[in-house]
Amino acid sequence: QGKLVSSPGNRSDMAAFGLTFDKIPQILRLQFYGQVVAPNGNTSEIAGINKIGAGYEKIYVYTPDFGKTTPTIPTSIPSLTFAVCRDDQIISIQEGKTIDIPEDGYILAARGAGGEFLKNNFTSGDPVTLNLNINPDISNLKMALGGGAVLVENGQIPASFSHDIPGTNPRTAIGFTQDKKTMILAVVDGRQNESR
Predict the structure, then answer these.
(1) How many C-beta neighbours within 10 Å does residue 170 have?
(2) In this prediction, what percent of the chain has a pLDDT beyond 70?
(3) 54: which of 61, 113, 169, 193 lies 20 to 30 Å off by Cα?
(4) pLDDT at 126
(5) pLDDT tens readout for residues 102-116
(6) pLDDT tens digits for range 53-94
(7) pTM above the 0.85 mark?
(8) Cα–Cα distance between 38 and 117 in angstroms, integer?
(9) Three-state SS letters, 139-172
(10) Whole-number Å distance between alpha carbons of 165 and 113
C-alpha cells in the first residue's frame, strides 16, 4: 500500500508520470477529491494535501511529509483555524498564522467557510474522518511524479500544448517507448547557446 505524500494540483492541463508495481510506465492526468467528515456527518471539501493554500477558504491537510510547520501565511490573510489531529482524533483547535505539525499526526488548516466548519463541527477528542480519492485509481502505482505539458502522445506531437512555458530556462522531460520497455529522460540547459 502506497502513501499519498502530496495531492495532485487538479489542473487538467498538467500530466504526471507513473510507474506501476509491474514496472509499466504511464502518463496520467490525476484529479484529487477529498473531504473531512465530522462526527455529526457534516462534510467539508479538502483543497489539498501538503500544498500551499490559495486563500485557505477550503481545508488543507498538512502531514510531517510537508515539514515541521505549516506554511506561514502572508500578513494580508487573516489567521487560520488549525485542528491538530493524532490517530484520527482532534487534539486541539487553535487560531494563528502557522503551527507545528505533530510527528505522529496531521493538521487541518482553513479560514472562512473551512475554518468555521472546523470550529462548528469539532471539539477536542472528536474523531475525524478523511476521505481521500484520486482518479484514475493509483492503487497499482509504485510511484508518481507531477509534471507539465504532454509533448508527445501516442507517437504524435499534439496539435497544441496544454500550456506554454516561455523563456529559455532549463527543462526536463520524461517519456517511454511504445512498447513501454525503455524510459527516456531528457534534460536541456536552456540558458546555454548550444541548447537553443
Answers:
(1) 11
(2) 97
(3) 169
(4) 98
(5) 999 999 999 999 999
(6) 878 899 999 999 999 999 988 888 889 999 999 999 999 999
(7) no
(8) 9
(9) CCEEEEEECCCCCCECCECCCCCCCCCCCCCCEE
(10) 34
Task: Read off the C-alpha cell for 121.
Answer: 463541527
What size, in residues, is the chain?
196
Q: What's the per-residue H, E or C state across the chain?
A: CCCCCCCCCCCCCCCEEEEECCCCEEEECCEEEEEEECCCCCEEEEEEECCCCCCCCCEEEECCCCCCECCCCCCCCCCEEEEEEECCEEEEEEEECCCECCCCEEEEEECHHHHHHHHHHCCCCCECEEEEEEECCCCCEEEEEECCCCCCECCECCCCCCCCCCCCCCEEEEEECCCCCCEEEEEECCCCHHHC
When mean pLDDT is compared across 8-17, 45-54, 146-155, the lowest value belongs to 8-17
Q: Do 44 and 59 contact (CB within 8 A), yes or no?
A: yes
Point out which residues pair with 143 in neighbouring strands: 19
Cell of 3: 502513501
Grid cell 505539525 in the structure block, residue: 101
What's the distance, CA 30 to chain centroid?
10
Residue type for 5, please?
V
Q: What is the per-residue pLDDT for 196? A: 61
